[in-house]
Amino acid sequence: MTLTGRFVALVALGIIPVVWLGDSISRAFAVLTLWLLFVGLLGLADLLLAASPRAVTLERRLPNRVRLGERITSELFVTNTGSRHLRAVVRDAWQPSAGAGTNRTAVSVPPLGRRLVTVALTPFRRGERRVAHVTIRSHGPLGLWNRQATLHAPGAIRVLPPFRSRKHLPSRIQRLKELDGRTSVMVRGPGTEFDSLREYVRGDDVRSIDWRATARRNDVMVRTWRPERDRRVVILVDTGRTSAARIDDEPRLDTAFEASLLLAALAGPAGDRVDFVAFDRRVRGRVQGATGAALLSRMVDTMALIEPELIEMDWAAVPAQIRAITSQHALVVLVTSIDAAGASTGLLSVLAQLTRRHTVVVASVTDPLAARAVHARTTREDVYRAAAAERALLDVARVSAAIRQLGADVVTAAPADLPPALADRYILLKATGQL
């Protein structure tokens, strides 16, 4: 049972008869007692006339999945199985990160009637957003006292990565088609897989001349090439403690997921097989053997439940993870942080082992605030901040140089620019026949 503001206001109105009729202390006390008794009886009568909140059945309807930041509607059907008219406020107790906003709804349900309660949800965190209970506060016709009950009505939605970088996909696929020679412009890039023969034109590489075909046709013929297909692309995302840092108001891990999704969406149409692993000291998520639309679907489902772990990354175990996926030459993309020389020691220690068998690309997000802070030196605080930013950028440059010296490639960019930058590097590797 709960009291309403209307009941409190009614009690406060008792000051009027007390002042009007209470010409003595004893008389004022008697008037106050009678008024409180009268108000209490009204409240009790109102409580008895209120419908029981436990005589209610609930049915919930929810979409299974939603992308981060998208707006959906949660539907809750409230059925009054009692014999009294239900006047109530329904509170759907969603987790705060589900973005429920106003989740209290007034309903009026006749006996054996049914009403729909909707709540707009805009989740602002990935993962499973759950609701377990619904609280119903029923009041009588006077609205003085309430009957309250909390009923079990479980529900859950899986909040997927937003994949905002998919806007870059059409232009990159177009470039792959031009590279593969499948569009009307017939742009041919270098590759390692034979495509066709055509007549020699000025500017062609003489090493592409097919002398046997030239002898048969009595004209100089050259071979054309296309990038190889059916290659392996292994994406390994570092989910250790450095992935929890927020860069440009976004966790590093979320940026890593965006870059991984764009690369997978690009490599699939290019004919390559993509495997995804999220790892720190153990595997937090894995997607293997999926192709086509199932690849991205399984990747976003897996990514939705992965959160950063506040532990150090075990780089010594990474080569074994790659070997468990493929023993053939592959493009291995390591999405991690390289902004601290000390923290990158483990990565550098295993790169030589990986680059002996694979083409390795290390992708890391950089802080755009550091780049801007370098140029702001108007105050003393700005100078100190600029010095710290310079040191951070020098650390990234030192680690990047060490990675390149060990035979791997490096892609660094701000959170919004890292996914397209990694996709461009993949296209470049295809164009130059390194994949």
What do these coordinates show?
- The structure is a single chain.
- With 435 residues, the chain is an alpha/beta fold.
- The protein has three domains: 1-160, Sandwich (Immunoglobulin-like); 198-226, no CATH class; 229-431, 3-Layer(aba) Sandwich (Rossmann fold).
- It has twelve helices and 19 strands.
- The chain has helices at residues 5-12, 15-21, 25-49, 169-179, 211-217, 252-267, 293-304, 318-325, 345-355, 368-373, 380-405, 418-431, and strands at 2-3, 56-61, 65-67, 72-80, 86-94, 104-109, 114-121, 127-139, 145-160, 193-199, 221-226, 232-238, 246-247, 250-251, 273-279, 283-287, 330-335, 359-365, 409-413.
- The strands form five sheets. Strands 1, 3, 5, 6, 8 and 9 form a six-stranded mixed sheet that branches.
- A hairpin with a 3-residue loop joins strand 15 (273-279) and strand 16 (283-287).
- Helix 2 (15-21) packs antiparallel against helix 3 (25-49) and helix 4 packs parallel to helix 12.
- The chain is elongated.
N-to-C terminal Cα separation, in Å?
70 Å
Structural class: alpha/beta
Helical proportion? 25-40%
Task: Indicate the radius of gyration in whole angstroms.
Answer: 33 Å
- What's the helix count? 12
Q: How many structurally independent domains?
A: 3
CATH architecture of the largest domain: 3-Layer(aba) Sandwich
The mean pLDDT is 88
CATH superfamily of the largest domain: von Willebrand factor, type A domain
Enumerate the spans where pLDDT stays under 50 for 5 or more consecutive residues.
182-192
* Strand composition percent: 25-35%
Count of distinct strands: 19
Largest sheet: 6 strands, mixed
Shape: elongated
Which CATH class of the largest domain applies here?
Answer: Alpha Beta
